[in-house]
Write a structure and sequence with these properties.
Rossmann fold, 14 helices, eight-stranded mixed β-sheet, 409 residues, alpha/beta
Length: 409
């Protein structure tokens, strides 16, 4: 008789994931990870080692996943006692978080002495491990050899990260936060339409100094640019993000370069663009800077105004588009009126193959957006959605144009 494993169907967009927990204090983070995955519509089946059950209970994980939690290789609920086969056969990804040093060593050696290690050995789907251990355990030569072998064997590693550890020490080995692991899982399931490409993205505002404590800036939050950087990385690209001042976290796997002024952003782009296949200019770059900004704070003079002399900043996108061998250039236009007319005019003036446009009053600071793409084929509305959803659609459009051989106008 064939074994049956209770499961609830995933949503139309959800994936079938098996989450494994090994022994470690970071297991408490896995509860939040399950909650996030289920909320996103994924079907999550949980398998725990005996050591994991000493840190967090199966009852907790069952309540959060809405499914039976499996802990025993000899569980009688599996009719043919082949849980190590049946539990993973319908899964699209196995994620082990936390992944202890001991568990990683077992995977490398092909050991199978409990349910989780056995089903990982007998799996048909990819395996992702989020390592979690003391810094000395992570730095140990044996662990580093195992890490190298896991990568050679095609096992995906999410983290670890440096930081404070439960033992009171600080260093590499801390498990990624649930949000970061969730991002790694989401990235895994995205089409790798930009695999092998190098993408350069600018994001956020720039700040033009008036004096050491005052500046001219704009209302850009940087959210759209960061979403584009994340989406490009999800699509398999090597991504460099040049960012103006924001409080946003760097997307996982993205190289970030921080700048403040438009001139600093321009210099950073000039250094990085030669290696780029795609340049996406999302940053809201200040059009003007203050001439002769004061070296000391300007004292307020009661009853008197202030006059600032402004000079035009370099046009970063226009510079890149005019290079002898430019990357594929994508511009952004945030307009307050006449969206279609202004967007088409800007694309023609900058001589770029693709421009994304939106109404600024609907997008600045918001978590969602409504974007329209303009290229030689015409107008392509993306509809309204989260900025990450919009960014993924934009990246897909860029990939399709590159596949068709579309280059700068």
């Amino acid at each position: 008789m064939k074994a049956t494993t209770p499961a609830k169907p995933a949503s139309n967009t959800g994936r079938r994931i098996l989450l494994g927990l090994t022994g470690g204090i970071a297991a408490y983070k896995s509860a939040q990870l399950v909650r996030m995955l289920v909320k996103a519509g994924h079907d999550v089946r949980v398998v725990m080692t005996e050591a994991a059950c000493r840190f967090i209970t199966p009852v907790t994980m069952q309540a959060l996943s809405g499914q039976t939690v499996w802990t025993d290789l000899w569980d009688p609920r599996v009719a043919d006692n082949m849980g190590h086969i049946e539990l993973s056969r319908d899964r699209e990804l196995i994620v082990v978080a936390p992944g202890s040093a001991n568990f990683m060593a077992k995977v490398v050696q092909g050991l199978a002495d409990d349910l989780l290690s056995t089903l990982c050995l007998a799996r048909d789907c990819p395996l992702m491990i989020a390592p979690a251990m003391n810094r000395q355990m992570w730095d140990n030569a044996a662990t580093q050899r195992n890490v190298s072998q896991l990568r050679k064997d095609g096992v995906l590693l999410a983290g670890p990260a440096p930081g404070d550890q439960a033992c009171g020490e600080t260093g590499m080995g801390r498990m990624l936060e649930p949000e970061e692991i969730f991002g790694e899982i989401e990235a895994f399931f995205q089409p790798k339409s930009l695999a092998g490409k190098r993408v350069l993205v600018t994001a956020g505002p720039t700040a033009e100094a008036i004096d050491p404590v005052r500046s001219i800036t704009n209302a850009s939050s940087g959210k759209m640019g960061y979403a584009v950087a994340r989406a490009a990385r999800e699509a398999g690209a090597q991504v460099t993000l040049i960012s103006g001042p924001t409080a946003l976290a760097t997307p996982g796997g993205v190289e970030r370069i921080d700048v403040k002024s438009a001139q600093q952003m321009f210099e950073a782009v000039k250094k990085a663009v030669a290696r780029a296949d795609v340049f996406v200019a999302v940053a809201a770059v200040s059009d003007y800077r203050v001439v002769n900004a004061a070296e000391q704070k300007i004292k307020k003079a009661s009853g008197k105004g202030m006059t600032l002399e402004l000079a035009e900043n370099p046009d970063i996108l226009a510079y890149v588009a005019k290079l002898p061998s430019p990357p594929f250039c994508v511009g952004f236009a945030a307009e307050t009126e006449k969206l279609v007319a202004h967007a088409k005019e800007k694309r023609a003036r900058k001589k770029i193959p693709l421009l994304a446009a939106n109404l600024a009053q609907q997008a600045l600071g918001a978590d969602d957006n409504e974007i329209v793409l303009y290229d030689d084929a015409g107008e392509h509305p993306l509809g309204r959605g989260s900025k990450l959803e919009q960014a993924r659609k934009l990246v897909g459009h860029v990939a399709a144009m590159l596949k068709r051989g579309k280059r700068p106008a």
